[in-house]
Design goal:
By secondary structure, the protein is an alpha+beta fold. Helices cover 23% and strands 29% of the residues.
């Protein structure tokens, strides 16, 4: 059924032209040159409107407003006066206009939790408890929280590492499920919305780039290596282990010599770099280490970036503004790009167009204005394979 939340005229007025990406300000002209005391007084008036005195019941136990409440009121008052224009595209009023758009898909959206902490969104793709979500976020004891507040234990049935998708199974029947069609068209510039467990969308935006291949980017181990000029033994000598890296978490130590990666012999620093670069962020690699007279084997999870390991470029700095990016955000065979602002734990669920049709599943927050989604046409054949158990995860 086609959903029409607003009339065509109202839609055109609300959504055209597309919001500017520049940080233009909506402060009224007469306020741009106002004296600071005038602005302060205005804010005070907004925060403390004059109201008629009312008799207070002697049993009313309400105390003075909390400091947090005052701060919230102050922020709200400032935003009424001076708001960056680009925030209006994803503000509560615009998102509120999409309530009917996401209504049907929202009923079939779940929140995936790991050990009680939300790690992703997911979409119910079968009424008897099949849930599609983002694979690389799944660790620990998994549960799925439904919109009706019921929560079920979840187990992983199948994983597709290439697209970073997984199917979970929960013990539930007669659930609302997403209507998926590979025939749904995708247009650049079209508005899209991400359903969550609330009546309003998690985020809205527009399609920036039509489906394309997202290039591979190598994972990072997080070590500084010897250059072979100091009589290093055969292998790659570890001179430094960076904090918060996969190498540190795996237990790699300074003066260890890395001799194998996933069984592949490495004889030098160059060999190790070449082998590690074949893998993506969040891939796990087995490292064979020579530690003095002992041989040690550890498993390290590669990362997308390691703090203080490399100087941060201007583009990396700009992309880091706003919120955290997904660790696994590279190397997808195909994905469409949109500019809705998602958190990493808001990926994994459905993405819908203005007619409420599911056009894809969000898979990564990749930049300040870049989010990726795997198109529904690609998801459908993968989903059935994952449900069949053909790609069951390896037992740990």
């Amino acid at each position: 059924m086609t959903l029409l939340p607003i009339s065509r005229d109202a839609r055109d007025k609300l959504f055209s032209p597309a919001p500017s990406t520049k940080a233009e300000l909506t402060m009224p002209t007469f306020l741009q040159h106002a004296h600071p005391l005038v602005l302060t007084s205005l804010v005070f008036c907004v925060l403390c409107p004059i109201a008629p005195a009312q008799d207070k019941d002697e049993n009313d136990a309400e105390g003075p407003p909390s400091m947090e409440g005052a701060r919230e009121a102050f922020r709200d008052a400032i935003e009424r006066i001076w708001v960056p224009r680009q925030r209006l595209a994803d503000g509560p009023y615009v998102r509120g206009a999409f309530k009917e758009v996401i209504a049907e898909a929202g009923e079939a959206t779940v929140r995936v939790r790991s050990d009680g902490r939300t790690v992703a969104l997911g979409g119910i793709v079968g009424p008897d408890g099949w849930v599609l979500t983002k694979a690389s976020r799944l660790k620990g004891r998994l549960t799925a929280l439904l919109r009706d507040k019921r929560e079920f234990d979840a187990r992983i049935v199948g994983v597709d590492r290439e697209h970073d998708l997984a199917v979970l199974k929960i013990d539930a029947k007669e659930l609302p499920s997403l209507k998926l069609s590979g025939e749904t068209g995708i247009m650049a510039g079209a508005w899209v919305a991400t359903p969550g467990l609330d009546p309003v969308p998690v985020a809205v935006g527009v399609v920036s780039v039509l489906p394309r291949k997202i290039p591979h980017r190598p994972g990072i181990l997080g070590v500084q290596l010897g250059d072979g000029e100091r009589g290093d033994p055969a292998g790659a000598l570890v001179l430094k282990v960076f904090a918060d890296s996969g190498a540190e978490a795996a237990g790699v130590l300074v003066n260890d010599v890395i001799t194998r990666v996933n069984g592949q012999r490495v004889k030098s620093r160059a060999d190790l770099i070449r082998e590690v670069r074949r893998f993506s962020p969040l891939d796990q690699v087995d490292l064979e280490l020579q530690r003095g007279e002992k041989k040690v084997i550890v498993t390290a999870t590669l990362s997308g970036a390691v703090k203080n390991m490399f100087p941060q470029s201007r583009s990396q700095y700009q992309n880091s503004l706003g919120s955290e990016l997904s660790q696994r955000r590279f190397g997808f065979p195909i994905a469409l790009q949109h500019d809705a602002v998602l958190k990493p734990n808001e990926c994994g669920g459905p993405l819908v167009n203005l007619d409420g049709e599911v056009i894809g599943f969000n898979i990564a927050r990749a930049g300040r204005t870049e989010s990726y989604a795997i198109p529904t046409k690609t998801v459908l054949p993968l989903m059935y394979k994952l449900m069949s158990g053909e790609q069951a995860p390896e037992e740990e």
